[in-house]
Specification:
It is a single chain. By secondary structure, the chain is α/β, with parallel strands linked by helices. The protein has 3 domains: 45 residues, no CATH class; 127 residues, Rossmann fold (3-Layer(aba) Sandwich); 142 residues, Rossmann fold, CATH 3.40.50.2300. It is 43% helix and 18% strand. It contains 14 helices and 13 strands. Strands 7-8-6-9-10-11-13 form a 7-stranded mixed β-sheet, with helices on both faces. The chain has a 6-stranded parallel β-sheet with strand order 2-1-3-4-5-12, sandwiched between helices. α8 links the parallel β3 and β4. α7 packs parallel to α8. The longest helix is centred in the last third of the chain and has 16 residues.
């Protein structure tokens, strides 16, 4: 026999009446915010099952509290690109872990560098309690302007120049300076750089580090470039591939290793980029590190390579957790503070003195 649709939706009031308790007691059973005797709790839940009551209406709860229990997580350059990067995944792991403690869900939204209004249109039709910007982003963003106009708190895991945004990041300039200093102390003077996207069009052909700094609108990228400039100066050959993955690293290495004299070391702004550089160098018959030293940034596992990458290790999961706790503080109306986390330079087997 076909099921007939229930004429009216069971309510908390009808459950309370059937269980012989007050509405406030029944409400405590579902909120978990007060002491309720075990027998009473079981009786309320049993009557709820009989009546087909599944819990308080989220829409009604949202109207009462002014919150919807959802945080928007906005990724730069699309979801697929972000989640191919193990470091980005570790950030989300930490973020979700912190938000889950408060029963807060997330809504993933892509933010295109070339169509910034796309995410704004989606956000305009969506109720969110706060937003997290994942990854390095531009100096300004229409997404942030939109959220500020709605008085929605914003946390960025990265660097952004906005008084409305709270930041969880590392000292990118100091961290990259440490990697560059390591190479300089080994004796390298002829180095090249593979950068993260500068914010505009990719830069496939080598330009000077100073040229890329002039073009860059991504503050995180700029800070890392400045850390290299502090050690090696402004004239270092630099490329910024379209993708910041292994294929992007291969593409960059193809350009940087095609002329003479070859660099003795390549500094990359991401571990996946470094792995791409190593793969291309080995394809060319160059030995890493004896013919070419390579450094990375992030500290992700690289089990597919037999060596140990020299890289800046930043705390991905912890970074996400800190951002999540900061989001919850802002939602609750508490004052939030920017957080700068420490990094560590891990010396691996991908660097050695130049021949």
């Amino acid at each position: 026999m076909p099921r007939t649709r229930q004429a009216t939706r069971a309510t908390l009031s009808s459950v309370a009446q059937a269980a012989g308790v007050s509405i406030s007691t029944a409400s405590l059973v579902y909120s978990g915010k007060g002491p309720v005797a075990t027998a009473t709790r079981e009786r309320v839940l049993a009557q709820a099952t009989l009546l087909g009551y599944t819990g308080p209406d989220p829409a009604a709860s949202s109207l009462r509290t002014g919150r919807c229990g959802v945080v928007a997580v906005i990724t730069w350059d699309g979801l697929a690109a972000a989640f191919r990067d193990p470091y980005a995944v570790s950030l989300v792991d930490g973020l979700v872990s912190a938000l889950d403690e408060a029963s807060t869900g997330i809504l993933l939204l892509p933010q295109s560098r070339h169509q910034p209004g796309h995410a704004v249109a989606r956000l305009a039709a969506t109720a969110v309690d706060a937003a997290v910007l994942l990854g390095c982003g531009p100096e300004s963003s229409p997404v942030v302007d939109h959220l500020q106009a709605r008085q929605v708190p914003v946390v960025t895991i990265g660097t952004m120049a906005s008084s409305w945004v709270h930041r969880v990041d590392v000292d990118n300039r100091a961290a990259m300076r440490a990697a560059a200093t390591h190479l300089h102390q080994l004796g390298h003077r002829r180095v090249a750089v593979v950068s993260l996207p500068p914010g505009g069009a990719p830069v496939a052909e080598p330009v000077t580090l100073a040229d890329l700094l002039a073009r860059s609108t991504d503050l995180e990228t700029r800070e890392r470039l400045l850390g290299i400039r502090d050690v090696f100066g402004p004239d270092v050959p630099t490329v910024a591939p379209h993708k910041w993955d292994i294929e992007g690293g291969k593409s960059a290495a193809e350009h940087l290793l095609s002329g003479q004299p070859l660099p003795t070391a390549i500094i990359t702004q991401g571990d996946l980029l470094a792995m791409g550089v190593i793969a291309w160098a080995e394809h060319r018959g160059l030995r890493v590190p004896h013919d070419l030293s390579v450094t990375g940034f992030d500290g992700i596992p690289t089990p597919w390579w037999e060596g140990v990458l020299t890289t800046v290790v930043q705390p991905g999961v912890h970074k996400g957790e800190v951002a999540g706790r900061l989001v919850l503080d802002l939602i609750a109306g508490r004052t939030g503070q920017d957080v700068v986390l420490p990094t560590q330079l891990r010396i691996g087997t991908s660097t050695c003195p130049p021949r």
